[in-house]
Amino acid sequence: MDVSRPGKGRLRIAVTGASGDYGRLLLSRLDQDPDVESILVLDVVRPEGDKVEFHRVDLTRYDAESELTDALTERPVDALYHLAFLFGPIRNGSLAHELEVIGTMNVLTAAGRSRLPRLVVPSLTAVYGARGNNPAMLREDSALQGCPHSRFVTDKVEVEGQVRAFRERHPDMRVLVLRFAPVLGPSVDNPATRFLKNPVVPTLMGFDPLWQGLHEDDAARALHLALRADASGEFNIVGRGVMPISGLIQQAGARPLPLPGPLFRAGLHTLDAVGAGTLPVALLDYIHYSWVADGERAESALGFIPLHHVRDAAAALKRS
Amino acid sequence: MAKGVLGNDPFKRGAASRPTESSTPGGEDKAAAAETKKKPGPGGTASAKAGGKAAAAKSRKHEGKKTSGKAKGGKAAGGMKGAAAAARPPAQAPGTRAPAPQAERTEAANAALSPREPAPSQQARTPQAPQTSAHGADDAVLPLREPAVSTPLTLDSQAPGPVNDAGAPTPKQRDVDLALAEALAADVAEAVATAAVDAALGAETGPDAEVERLMATEFATELAEAAVEEALERGAPAPSLEQEQERAAAVAAQVADSAARAAIEQVRALHATPDAPAVTRWERETPVRVVVTEEADTSAVEPEVELPDATRDELPPSRRGPLSLVPPPATNAGEPSYRESFPADSGRGEPEGLRPLAERAVAALSLARDIAGQALASESLARALLAMGGLKDMLRAGLGTGGGANLDEYGKDPSLVERLEPVLEFLYSQYWRVSVQGVDHVPPGAAILVANHSGALPYDGLVMSMALTRERPDLRDPRWLVEDQIFHAPMVGTLFNRLGAVRACPENALRLLDEHRPLVVFPEGYQALSKPFGERYRLKRFGRGGFVKLALRTGAPIVPVAIVGAEETSPLLGRIPASFLGLPYVPVTPLGPLPLPAKWSIRFGEPIGVEDLEPEAADDLGEVQRLTERTREAIQSMLQSLLRERRSVFAG
């Protein structure tokens, strides 16, 4: 356990964005971890939990960085989970950008100043982008092509760039980026679950790309494993198996409705323009081409072996 | 003595074929008991032997009958051993019972039982009956059977039931009915005879009283059974099984009752007279029966060997169903006609005028069902239906609604391939008549199969993978690499992906070779598909030597492959620009997306090994170029020879 410092048996962990889906999943795990002494929550809302020490920080404010540094240096922490991210595009694009890119910048600066031993940042496999020229299995070193139409994914790619630069500047720190496949489960809410929860799900006619899915329990386990793993870098956190999107839809209890591409595209853009869009336009790319990430590295370096098959993860949506 | 021999045989079989003795001891014990009692005189021994044999044989027959009864009545007497089964009045099995004196019978059972309690201490050793004595020895150690009474209930003459079944197929039902009726009658006769003999002998006691009782019962039973048989065979067919049974039972009861006294007399006379006359008497009497018995036993051997096994109660209930003495008339016709036999059966007894009409109608109906069933079961239709199902699935997969939960990470759907198997099989072996040569050149493990790409529609990858799966099942599931373009096309790309095509890129190729799969590559790529028909079988530039670099880096051998026939399968007649579909063009082919039935030949060449080259040679462009050219020449020369050998494009 490289995380624990000499002379200190128990872990003190800081978490930003503890009220989000990842934060919720992680906190319940950390609460049950006997090695975790206390959880310093740096957020705007106080979450439940016995071990929680709350320190109100608004990452979108200009003074967030100094507040974070103060909080982190006042009592040193063993690990910082930076989970303050959005789980899907929001209409207020500039706020999203402030939170994700600027917020991460603040967190990274504070982390660098307080000499944290470990930083964990979640990301998405969507940053690889869904392209026709993707290899069958995307490894961590594949290029992050992102999705040019989606501010949300572009922001994520930018955050990844920041974190990578930070990792290179601080080789003594363990910086883990967990690229999650779409997290599916009864208690999470993201574009993928919203997409699959419709009774009839439009798809692109003639295309049936392979999707991966990650059960929320597996996601929580991966986050928890990152606390102790003796590794650094990016990891694809994916569930077992792959499924075509139509199979995923059927597993989730819905029916796929193949629409001709141009029609679907035009319809989605129109809906988006009038502000009634329920599906993000960027999703079109992801239901067009496959983006299957290889979870081999997470297994070997992180010790993360998914327990749930993607079809179980999708079926969990139906039960909810 | 024929009877003795015949009576003996089933014993041995029974002893051999049955692990549990409990079912046989009935007859054997009886034989033993009779034998010991008969000890005093040699004549007595002979008769006892005969009686014992008869009883034993009868018990066996009875079992056979019972099987039929069970099977017919649908009674699954689970967990019931032969002895236990015999203990219960066996007449329960076949449907409605004649008002046979049940109580009487049980009484008789008790009466018959008590005298047999003492185990035989000595064995008869008469020159005439060596086997008998052996049986006596055997029987001595066997536990005394309780259900003895009901065991010897059938007559020798009942054996013709199964015999006739085997011989004449048409009146099978009738035979079974007869056999059932006879079994029942025998039961009744025995019970009645026992009761009558008991009544006649009364309180008489003495050393021979028990033996006399037994023998008299035997005689009476036999007489009654013979009478029943005669009545059944000579008499007009009764309208139904129940009536027949009732009649048989009534005859049996009457004859047995009246014969009891005569039987006792006979026994006493027998007893009194010296051995020789007794024997002759028996012999005089037996021939009549022996004839019957003989044919019964010899021909009944087959069913008898089978039946005891069938009656085993260890048999799962599911296997009891087909255990009928009457096999369904036409096995392939299946259920309908089997069910049909029952109306036909009951119709048999109807007045003569109605019969032909009804029979004809029934026959016509069953024939129609047969035809329908056969048509449905016929292989070609089934295959056509399967193929339709497969094509539907293929269409759905192409449209993007196929679903599927067990795809591999490359996107191949093994279950879809399985469902398409009828179509693929037809294309492969009947439509294209693919002939494969030199497939043994493909080494096990990772191998790069380099083939010429041809035809406007890339069926060749699919055919290559089919050829490898069929001809070399020892190899791992092969994959073929296709260019990106196909994945930009709706439907086609998805479908190819589901069938096993993988996008050509170094990452995929390395991963596939890491998995020790044969990897089919078409280095000419898309140019080979877009070349006009006039340039068929002329190899284009082999890409940039990517497959050679791959081979050098992984050490996988290169196997050159020549494919002839694909060009004519879908000759390119023209191109329609189709950039709106994501495709550079849509090819114009004679039958649209359907292929022509050209004959395919695939020849695998000698592998080109790269073991002697360092992986670093992959960066040596000259080396890569040399190997590329070598492969290209190998394929081109194989193509030429295949084309020379080809006599006709479509035939052959």
UniProtKB/TrEMBL annotation, chain A:
It comes from Myxococcus xanthus. InterPro entries: Epimerase_deHydtase, Lipid_A_modif_metabolic_enz, NAD(P)-bd_dom_sf. This is SDR family oxidoreductase. Residues 13-237 form the NAD-dependent epimerase/dehydratase domain. Pfam families: Epimerase. Gene3D superfamilies: NAD(P)-binding Rossmann-like Domain (3.40.50.720). It comes from the Bacteria.
UniProtKB/TrEMBL annotation, chain B:
Residues 27-38 have a biased composition (Basic and acidic residues). Residues 1-173, 294-353 are annotated as: Disordered. GO terms for cellular component: membrane. One of its GO terms (molecular function) is acyltransferase activity. It comes from the Bacteria. Keywords: Acyltransferase, Transferase. Residues 447-566 form the Phospholipid/glycerol acyltransferase domain. Residues 120-134 have a biased composition (Polar residues). Pfam families: Acyltransferase. Residues 45-57, 82-103 have a biased composition (Low complexity). Residues 58-73 have a biased composition (Basic residues). This is Acyltransferase. It comes from Myxococcus xanthus. The lineage of its organism: Bacteria, Pseudomonadati, Myxococcota, Myxococcia, Myxococcales.
